[in-house]
Amino acid sequence: MEYFEPRSVSEALSVLARHGAEAKIIAGGTDVMVDIKFKEEPGGLVNIKKIPGLNGISENGAGLRIGPLTTIREIETSALVREKLPVLWEAAHQFASLQVRNTATIGGNICRASPSGETLGPLLVLDAKAKLAFGDGQKTVPFTSFFQGPGKSSVGVDGLLTEIDIPYPPAGSKSVYLKHAVRGAMDIAMVGVAVLMTSDSGKNNIQDVRIGLAAVAPTPIRATKTEALLRGKPLTAALVKEAAALASTEASPINDQRSSAEYRRWIVEALTRNGLGQTWKAATGKEIA
Ligand SMILES: Cc1cc2nc3c(=O)[nH]c(=O)nc-3n(C[C@H](O)[C@H](O)[C@H](O)COP(=O)(O)OP(=O)(O)OC[C@H]3O[C@@H](n4cnc5c(N)ncnc54)[C@H](O)[C@@H]3O)c2cc1C
Q1: Which residue minimizes the CA distance to atom 51 of ligand 1?
Q2: What is the dihedral of CA 200, 224, 157, 160, to 10 degrees?
Q3: Which atom of ligand 1 is the closest one to the Cα of 95?
Q4: How many H helices and E strands in the chain?
Q5: Sign, CA torsion 217/223/229/230
Q6: Angle at 154 between CA 44 and CA 102, to 5 degrees
Q7: Which of 77, 125, 151, 157 lies at a CB distance of 3.0 to 4.6 Å from 210, suitable for a disulfide?
Q8: Can you say whether residue 67 is alpha, beta or left, with left for phi > 0 and alpha for psi between -120 and 50 degrees?
Q9: Which residues 6+ apart lie within 8 Å of 133 measured at CB?
């Protein structure tokens, strides 16, 4: 296996252009090293950790810019993320073990494009965007259209994720990330649900709601039909029941070693109900009518 340590984005891109699908980018390596051991060895490894400028969390006008090499632990310990993007902080906090969080990067979590990636539901509800570099230029892609299937994304085999741009959620909005896993934080999500809700100024109706579902479809998804059902209405017991049932039909889960499809649908329903209830109460100060 050939090993490369590019010192710039353009150097990394030219290695990828020369080696195409044969070469694999490695960041924290918590997915790549497992794949090498248990699945297949790539023709080359492109270690991007020595490229300057791909790290860190900073304010960027009306949002945060996160470098792809930022570790999950750096996100978890960032006061800025905790204050401004609590739904992403919650996902980082529930991510694997401390050892894995110290090594795993947000860029790796995104580019792995696993349907169950912990940070992906939060990025979807935050309306975040990926900045990608290719040999022939740059592209900005919203995460709502970034994921194309398990392991497949707009980054392809010759692109590099260079930045994650996350706008601040609307003032007064409240959010929650709920993970269902058998072994708590040390397990990949069986189902992940992120909810971000904004109430109207009178705190009587849902002005906007965004629901991200993970591990229940070939890609992480937004439950757009459920969101449309809820907008402009007060959250009543009947509505929350209808919305949670609709969210479970927007999911298209599979049976695998972690869960049956049927159980996953049931968990989507339960977590959506909880997430809506929690965010409604936090946004309006009211119980469900
Ligand atoms: C014990 C264990 C527990 C885990 N628990 C969880 C969990 O709870 N939740 C969860 O979501 N995941 C979990 N994972 C999976 C893994 O830790 C995450 O997906 C992690 O975020 C991957 O980041 P990394 O930096 O290690 O990526 P790497 O393994 O280095 O790379 C992952 C993929 O992304 C590509 N890549 C990386 N950076 C870039 C970039 N900038 N541009 C283009 N492509 C890039 C690589 O080529 C590779 O395909 C776990 C893994 C282990 C081993």
Answers
A1: 30
A2: 0
A3: 8
A4: 11, 14
A5: positive
A6: 60
A7: 125
A8: beta
A9: 9, 13, 159, 160, 162
- pLDDT above 90 (res 183): no
Pull the structure tokens for residue 62: 């009306």
- Percent of the chain residues topping a pLDDT of 90: 90
DSSP β-bridge partners for residue 163: 131
Give yes or no for residue 163 CB within 6 A of ligand 1.
no
Ligand 1 atom nearest the C-alpha of 181 is 8
- Residue 227 and residue 210 in contact, taking contact as beta carbons nearer than 8 Å: yes
What is residue 93's predicted lDDT score, i.e. its pLDDT?
96
pTM: 0.97
Q: How many Cα neighbours within 13 Å face the side chain of 182?
A: 5
Beta strand 206-214 pairing with 191-199: antiparallel
What CA–CA distance (Å, rounded) separates 91 from 208?
21
Which among 11, 35, 111 is the best mutation to test ligand 1's pocket, defined by most ligand atoms within 8 Å of the CB?
111
* Residue 232 per-residue DSSP state: T
- pLDDT at residue 189 in the model: 87
